[in-house]
Amino acid sequence: MKEVLAAAGVPSARFGVFDDAHSAIRFLDELPGTVVVKTDGLAAGKGVLVTDDRDEAAADIRHKLSGEAFGDAGRRVVIEEGLAGEECSLHVLVDGVSAEPMAPARDYKRLLDGDAGPNTGGMGAVSPVASVDDALVGTVMDRAVLPTLAELRRRGIDYRGVLYAGVMITGEGPSVLEFNVRLGDPEAEVVLPRLADDPFDLFVAVASGTMSGPPRFSPDAAVTVVLAAQGYPRSPALGARIRGLGLHGQLEDHLDGVFVFHAGTRRDEDGFVVAGGRVLSVTALGPTVGIARARAYEAVSTISFDGLQVRHDIAAGEMAPA
Ligand code: GLY
Fold first, then answer.
1. Tell me: the pLDDT tens digits for 98-121?
2. Cα–ligand 1 centroid distance for 149 (angstroms)
3. 3-class secondary structure, 300
């Protein structure tokens, strides 16, 4: 990905790719401040270490390259300079002819309140994002997304579908952290519920190159809170019985505007049990972020299982001052 971005002239953090620990650790010394150590393969968000501690970064590099942590997905690491700023996730619909942004979202990647603890695949998300207005979305499109799509076309790739841009809004403007060729999780759980168009029609248009303008979104806000298993992200404990869900997997005690998305659950004759690290994503819609957030947490309080982990500050920084 980094090579495509460089060819497209898209701003992104300084980086190196290594499959031997010695060169990787030498590169660490060239980077000031925070560093990011990622696996080059897919590791469900768990392969990313963000740290200021050189010894921790060096130990993580050795661990990943040994193959013990993520098998083949971890045998090559990408080391990046950590960027400071606010993160934003932007899904873009691409139909081969045009590209249209969806509503911006923000996810909360750290396990614990206050952005502490290890990186995860995402502990919650909110949409809209107060600091990401239409002008900023336009800048991300112009500086990051459209040049990347042009570079893909130059390489003979007719990309159609969802392009997910993870962007850091720095003092110098947006810088790309990652592109994914899929919806984000848990960002999808706040963006799709706000979609005002029929998703089937929209995705048919995307696939067939007939998109006729930007997708429309409800003015409602959406907040999702992830319920994670004990031990997540390192070693999730599976099998705990989930209480508070009805027969169809939604809240036993219905709340308006609340959806429960299942990520790591298994159904048995008595209901649902934990079957993955990120177990449920509880989304609520509301006329403001504050109301959506209060509904989401009210819904979360009715669900329980042994060892449940949840952040209490999802979207707390996104509420308009009273
Ligand atoms: N939430 C980050 C991702 O889906 O990659």
1. 999 999 999 999 999 999 999 898
2. 20
3. helix
